[in-house]
């Protein structure tokens, strides 16, 4: 495989994975096609077999996939990779319909730390999960994705806001309601009826729609761009890029080792949920695989987690926002993320292991440390490390325009990260060398 083939698959995945629900559905389909079995956690005493490959989902928005090594069982230690399925977006409110000046709009809530200005003047569609009562009155769910432009958030003309280029702020309550149609009082569309019709077209026996989790997204497809095709431009690169890289690495993993991929929802809002990295999902599965507390402790002592989440590339127009010695560049290799205050979980031990693996693949490595006079973001790495007590590395592909409606990454970096993670899954020792 080369980077061109890899990026073709990445762009296809990004196009399909318009919400965390659709991302998990796409990953689960790929796993099933590759021979992975769905693991039923509700089965008491459910067990795995050497050479077996398994996956499970929760809330339709988080996923764990793992392999039971033919030579090293999970209890001997796991090579784990973590990522997250969610991205900042505009989510539809429960009672969203608004009719203003003959314009039918939907009220939205900002999910995560979204960069709001780029959402204006984009062709937007709608996707998510819908809960409904079926024809028999039972609760059921279905995924919807309209896959065509339904809405737009028009900018205010500069003639009416002469300071727009120097002093424009966005009020998320009043300024970013998407416009869907023209309508008169009493003739405006009903969102739940639109959803019911869409579900029925997909074969669902919908009695009535009860509730939903919907988000708007930009319909512009992912693209490889640049004079030399140096870049990938797409929505949701943070962090579906890492989900795809981790998935492809797991599919290519050495069957002798026990390997695991976890993709959690809700990272962008703090990860404190039943299916977030600070929730019980991963620990519950690992405890089931270990069988008891002593075996669980032994497993984690011999395990390593690589948390993969995009890193801030140095912006050519704003280079002063980076520490001058730690400004990662596009297509210069994945980035090890460091923070002395534990906003990232990287240690010298886990960073050293990654550098050894990258050397074997001839993949360059970069380092990121935030400017000392600026606040540092975080990711699932520290949360997972704290929840499990497992040695953890925070790594990421350098990215520009993070949390925008359309982000930018280098066209070589995702492929290079895949090469290193594939090597990590084949690493012969789950336990990194200890200092004597």
Automatic annotation (TrEMBL):
Name listed for the protein in its UniProt record: M18 family aminopeptidase
EC number(s) recorded for this UniProt protein: 3.4.11.-
GO biological process: proteolysis
KW Lyase (keyword) present: no
Protein source organism: Chromatocurvus halotolerans
A cellular component annotation (GO) from this entry: cytoplasm
Signal peptide extent: none
Cofactor(s) the protein needs: Zn(2+)
Enzyme class at the top of the EC tree: hydrolase
CDD domains xref list: M18_DAP (cd05658)
Keyword list, A-Z: Aminopeptidase, Hydrolase, Metal-binding, Metalloprotease, Protease, Zinc
Family according to the record: Belongs to the peptidase M18 family.
UniProt entry tagged with the keyword Transmembrane: no
Biological classification of the source: Bacteria, Pseudomonadati, Pseudomonadota, Gammaproteobacteria, Cellvibrionales
One Gene Ontology term of the molecular function aspect: aminopeptidase activity
């Amino acid at each position: 495989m080369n980077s061109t083939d890899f990026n073709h698959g990445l762009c296809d995945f990004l196009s399909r994975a318009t919400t965390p629900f659709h991302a998990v559905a796409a990953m689960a389909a790929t796993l099933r096609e590759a021979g992975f079995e769905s693991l039923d956690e509700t089965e008491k005493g459910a067990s795995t077999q050497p050479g077996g490959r398994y996956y499970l989902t929760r809330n339709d928005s988080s996923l764990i996939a793992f392999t039971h090594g033919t030579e090293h069982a999970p209890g001997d230690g796991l090579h784990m990779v973590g990522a997250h399925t969610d991205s900042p977006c505009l989510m539809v409110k429960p009672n969203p319909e608004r009719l203003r000046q003959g314009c039918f709009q939907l009220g939205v809530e900002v999910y995560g730390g979204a960069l709001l200005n780029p959402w204006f003047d984009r062709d937007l569609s709608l996707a998510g999960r819908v809960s409904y009562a079926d024809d028999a009155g039972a609760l059921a769910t279905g995924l919807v994705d309209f896959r065509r432009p339904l809405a737009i958030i028009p900018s205010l003309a500069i003639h009416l806001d002469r300071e727009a280029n120097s002093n424009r702020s966005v009020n998320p309550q009043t300024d970013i309601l998407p416009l869907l149609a023209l309508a008169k009082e009493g003739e405006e569309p009903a969102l739940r009826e639109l959803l019911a019709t869409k579900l029925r077209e997909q074969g669902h026996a919908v009695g009535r729609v009860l509730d939903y989790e919907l988000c708007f997204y930009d319909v512009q497809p992912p693209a490889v761009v640049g004079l030399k095709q140096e870049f990938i431009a797409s929505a949701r690169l943070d962090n579906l890029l890492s989900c795809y890289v981790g998935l492809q690495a797991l599919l290519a993993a050495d069957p002798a080792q026990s390997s695991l991929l976890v993709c959690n929802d809700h990272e962008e809002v703090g990860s404190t949920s039943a299916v977030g990295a600070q929730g019980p999902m991963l620990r519950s599965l690992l405890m089931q695989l270990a069988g008891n507390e002593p075996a669980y402790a032994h497993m984690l002592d011999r395990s390593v987690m690589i948390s993969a989440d995009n890193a801030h590339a140095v912006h050519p127009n704003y280079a002063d926002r980076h520490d001058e010695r730690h400004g990662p560049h596009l297509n210069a290799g994945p980035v090890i993320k460091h923070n002395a205050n534990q906003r990232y979980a990287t240690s010298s031990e886990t960073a050293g292991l990654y550098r050894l693996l990258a050397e074997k693949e001839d993949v360059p490595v970069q380092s990121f440390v935030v400017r000392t006079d600026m606040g540092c973001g975080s990711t699932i790495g520290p949360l997972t490390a704290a929840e499990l007590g497992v040695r953890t590395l925070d790594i990421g592909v350098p990215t520009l325009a993070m949390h925008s409606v359309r982000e930018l990454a280098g066209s070589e970096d995702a492929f290079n990260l895949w090469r290193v993670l594939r090597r990590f899954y084949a690493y012969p020792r789950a336990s990194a060398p200890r200092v004597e």
